[in-house]
Amino acid sequence: MRSRLRLFIPLALALGLGALLWLGLGNDPYRQDEATLGRTLPVWQSQDLFGGPPIPTERLKGKPFLLNVWASWCPACRAEHGLLSELAGSVPLYGLNYRDKGGAARAWLSQAGNPYRAVLEDPDGRLALELGVYGTPETYLFAADGTLIARHTGELTREIWQRQFVPKLSEARAAVTAKSRP
């Protein structure tokens, strides 16, 4: 009798694991993006991917800006690159090169085009950890004072840009304009 019960243990474990996976499918992945809204950009200094002087995160502030976390080995990063190149003309865009080899990252940007005003190196992922990065690509929209106002994990598409980022960017720009008026 006892040996027959042992036969059902793997089945029970498999059913339990299946139930957990099923429940996980119902989670909204965008809720993770909203969890960090309102946080401020960490005070940090990173090496410039192209060998310029170190880049303090304070330098990014002043206007609403995008910070895109990417790597040369990331297929989704390559897929969103064209859109980022278009957006670079309308909003300050900075890159955070995540856990990548500098030579490979520079070579890829040389081939694909560099849409970034500056690229911060993060070879060990320490700045990304402070930002709360889950993986690449991720795109963050910060207000002029460095407050996180929008975030997207995964490939940025035109639809996501229009729905999630454009309204927040407009609000952030209006706030800067209102502050500058006497």
Largest sheet: 5 strands, mixed
- Work out the helix count: 6
Category from helices, strands and their pairing: alpha/beta
Question: How large, in whole angstroms, is the Cα Rg?
Answer: 21 Å
- Tell the overall outline: globular
Q: Which percent range fits the helix content?
A: 40-55%
The string of secondary-structure elements, in order, is: HHEEEHEHEHEEH
Give the low-pLDDT segments: 27-31
Strand order of the largest sheet: 5-4-3-6-7
Q: How many beta strands in the DSSP annotation?
A: 7
Q: What distance lies between the first and last C-alpha atoms, to the nearest angstrom?
A: 86 Å
Topology:
Layout: H1 2-25, H2 30-35, E1 45-46, E2 55-56, E3 65-70, H3 75-87, E4 93-98, H4 102-112, E5 119-122, H5 126-131, E6 138-142, E7 148-153, H6 158-180
Parallel strand pairs: 3-4, 4-5
Antiparallel strand pairs: 1-2, 3-6, 6-7
Q: What can you see in these coordinates?
A:
With 182 residues, the protein is α/β, with parallel strands linked by helices. It has six helices and seven strands. The strands form two sheets. A five-stranded mixed sheet has the order 5-4-3-6-7. The chain has a two-stranded antiparallel sheet with strand order 1-2. A hairpin with an 8-residue loop joins β1 and β2 (55-56). Residues 27-31 have low confidence and may be disordered.
